[in-house]
Amino acid sequence: MTTTANPPTDEKLNFKRVLPIFVIVLIDLLGLTIIIPLLPLYAVSFGADPFTVGLIGSTYPLMQLIGGPVLGGLSDRYGRKPVLIISQIGTLFGFILLAVSNSLALIFVSRIIDGLSGANIVAAQAAMTDSTTEKTRTQGLGLIGAAFGLGFVLGPAISGIALALSGNDYRVPALIAAAFSLLSILLTAFWFNETLPAARRGAAQGTGSKPALQRVVRAITNPLVGMLLILMFLQQIVFGGYENLFSLFSLTRLGLNAAGNSLIFVFMGIIIVLVQGKYIGPLSRKYGEHKLIWAALGLLAIGLVLTSITPQQPVPWYSRAELAAELNERVSIDAQTASLRLPEDGANGWFGLAWILVASVPAVIGGGLLAPSLNSLITRRSPASETGSILGVSASLVSAANAITPIAGGALFQIFGSTAPFLIGGLGMAALMFLALRVVQPLPETETVAT
To answer: What residue spans define the domains of the chain?
Structure first.
């Protein structure tokens, strides 16, 4: 059946069909979002400086760069379900090891295991693409982003509650994340139905068997998707620092601990849910993905620049001695507080917190619009038999960017101060917006969809 056989139906997303994908991704991401706000501070509690925190942030995406394209190609050969289960098992073991870590070395190993098996989102994106039409694809991929946003609402809240009840024991949220990972494995095994027909799996064997580097080069040199993939890589280079260094930034500017950062991540998650769960579908149909990409880059530029100039004013409940003690159970308090440059007591207030919340709105809206719009255009310009492989390449490029950015951002943070990574990132986003205005143009069918 062609996509023009029944236009009214094709223009509406089949929520019943995609519901299992959404729920499984949500449960899976709850584990990830539980540890995101506390992982940098968990590392700090073992004596990590900002540069080392950046190295830890790079470990997962660097390993995902190796495993993502391979598992994405295998999902085209053998189906989405087995790849999802394999990647989820790796995530489970990674979280368990994180929970029992007693050194920075074990934290690194836990992120290596999780990263090598980290094709969860790639396989889920491919399954969503299997289950949508060209007209509903952006909305479908946006639902995966909405699951991430909802995870950012629930995960940090669960993390904050767990930390409060456990006396800021960072191991407890990691164990809870492992429990959610186990639940996602069970849901995938017993509820999720394979979305890739056997006939299409056969057609994709040639692509899935190619070496990962060859698939990346082939995709980037494709005239229809190459520039979109490069743009995906470049935007993640400058946006990755925002994601990876936000907790350290708010720690040094506002004196927020892991529980306080969890509340900000909840706020961001609510925005992402609204953007990707409700608005991105109608906006993409009305304006086209290319215009959403332009707008998203501009919003990110504004948000990052505003974040970089957040006033250094600790929150009203901040106590330097109490926060230093919380972070430094295992290492020298004096050495660690000097490395992190915690705010001094006095002049506490609400203005700094209010500023960073306002600044996060355009940044999060831009981030919520950008990745689904780029991936939607990428899949529309790719052969159906290579969807999983192309999305694997896209994810691997994002992973490559995420591997570079934390190291570079951590170095900038440590040498030039907390403002540098965010200000440079905002200026970089502005430059990418002007590049996108030139190179990201609609295909003829995009104009038809927009009308």
So the answer is: 17-450
Structural contact between residues 415 and 408, judged by C-beta atoms closer than 8 angstroms: no
C-alpha distances in angstroms, 63 versus 117, 195, 371, 390? 8, 27, 21, 18
With H, G, I as helix, E, B as strand and everything else as coil, classify residue 238.
helix
In this predicted structure, the answer to whether residue 12 has a pLDDT above a threshold of 60 is yes
Q: How far apart are CA 254 and CA 314, in angstroms?
A: 4
Mean pLDDT across the stretch 72-80? 77
Q: What's the pLDDT at 328?
A: 64
Over residues 211-269, the pLDDT tens digits come to: 556 666 777 767 677 788 888 888 888 777 787 788 888 988 898 887 788 788 888 87
Nearest to 25 by CA among 166, 143, 157: 143
Rounded to the nearest 10 degrees, what angle do helices 289-308 and 226-254 cross at?
A: 30
Fold of 17-450: Growth Hormone; Chain: A; (1.20.1250)
What letter represents residue 155's amino acid? G
**What gap in Å lies between CA 187 and CA 179, rounded to an integer?**
13
pLDDT at residue 209, as a whole number: 47
| Angle at the Cα of 381 from the Cα atoms of 379 and 387, rounded to 5 degrees | 35
Largest CA distance in the chain: 70
Distance of CA 400 to the CA centre of its chain: 13
**Residues 32 and 174: beta-carbon distance below 8 Å:** no
- Give dist(CA 88, CA 91) in Å, integer: 5
333-359 residue pLDDT tens: 343 444 567 788 888 999 999 999 999
d(CA 214, CA 195) in angstroms, rounded, equals: 26
The CA distances from residue 22 to 26, 369, 399, in Å, are: 6, 18, 22
The CA–CA distances, whole Å, from 81 to 212, 324, 424 equal 21, 45, 40
Taking the alpha carbons at both ends of the chain, their separation in whole angstroms is 23
pLDDT at 127: 81
Confirm if 412 and 420 have CB atoms less than 8 A apart: yes
Q: 51: which residues sit within 8 A by CB, 6+ positions away?
A: 407, 410, 411, 413, 414
- Cα–Cα nearest to 370, from 449, 420, 303, 305: 303
Residue with tokens 């790796």: 90
- Residue carrying the six token digits 């540069």: 51
Q: What are 348's two structure tokens?
A: 């506490």
Give CA–CA dist 34/178, Å, rounded.
10
